[in-house]
Amino acid sequence: MDYPPSHPDSPALSASEVLDMLQDHASADARALLGPRYGIHVDRALGVSMADMKLVARRVGRDHRLAADLWATGVYEARVLAGLVDDPSAVTIEQMDAWCADFDSWALCDTVCFTLFDRAPGAWTRLEPWAADDAEFVRRAAFALLWSLALHDAGAPDESFVAALGLVEEHAGDERPLVGKSISMSLRAVGRRNGDLKLAVLTTAERLVDSDSIPARRVGRTPLRDVR
Fold first, then answer.
1. Tens digits of per-residue pLDDT, 56-98?
2. Which pLDDT score is estimated for 4?
3. C-alpha angle with apex 220: 216 to 225, nearest 5 degrees?
4. Does residue 14 fall inside a structural domain?
5. Nearest to 170 by CA among 121, 198, 130, 226
6. CATH number of the structural domain spanning residue 164
7. Secondary structure of 82-132 in the HEC alphabet?
């Protein structure tokens, strides 16, 4: 089912109406594959593809209130959609922290960071506190956000990224693969911004590869190869 984009004067949709739209695209087979195929292990899911979620998001348009209502449902696809339709300019630090604490999969974490949080006014303030948090998906969010900022925040000064490299070194020894992958990818993304940051990333990666920590060596190895 194809949905036309919403008109600015159209009546606002409710969360229940949007859930019905998602249900139109739901598949029991797709839901069953979320864990085995994609490593998305969540308690409540409908089984809707990302392509279909983007289709529904196009119909819904930007709606900060609706995004909050969708998030409150606790349904995986509804929360992904919340990240797609929320207004970044309206996102507060309190909302970022609350949603981040709810992350229960790498997919939800990365989607919200890459489509919403990296454009929010408080994005840069969340790197340090989230990295310091021991919760798996909160720490992953810190580096997914750094990764996304490296790709999308064209105006950010190099100094901000150099400072963030300290967080990379501090937490590169995390033994959880989903955290280490995010740290490694953030390092690669920063190193591709320009020549100065490339040198800074190579220096960081070399120290990681020479460290006594196996996870840290793993984090540094791929950026050292790819950025060089």
1. 999 999 999 999 999 999 999 999 999 999 999 999 999 999 9
2. 46
3. 155
4. no
5. 130
6. 1.25.10.10
7. HHHHCCHHHCCHHHHHHHHHHCCCHHHHHHHHHHCHHHCCCHHHHHHHHHH
Coil, helix or strand at residue 213: coil
Q: Does residue 69 sit within a domain?
A: no
Is 216 within a domain? Answer: yes
Q: What is the number of structural domains in the chain?
A: 1
pLDDT digits 0-9 by tens, 18-35? 999 999 999 999 999 999
Q: Give 202's contacts (C-beta < 8 A, 6+ positions apart).
A: 191, 223, 224, 227, 228
Helices 177-191 and 195-209, axial angle in degrees (round to 10): 150
Q: 75 — alpha (psi -120 to 50), left (phi > 0) or beta? A: beta
Question: Which of these, 192, 220, 223, lies nearest to 207 by C-alpha position?
Answer: 220
For 192-212, b/e burial (b = at least 16 CB within 10 A) is: ebeeebbebbbebbeebbebe
pLDDT of residue 42: 96
User: Is the residue at 47 inside a domain?
Assistant: no
Domain hosting residue 150, numbered range: 123-228
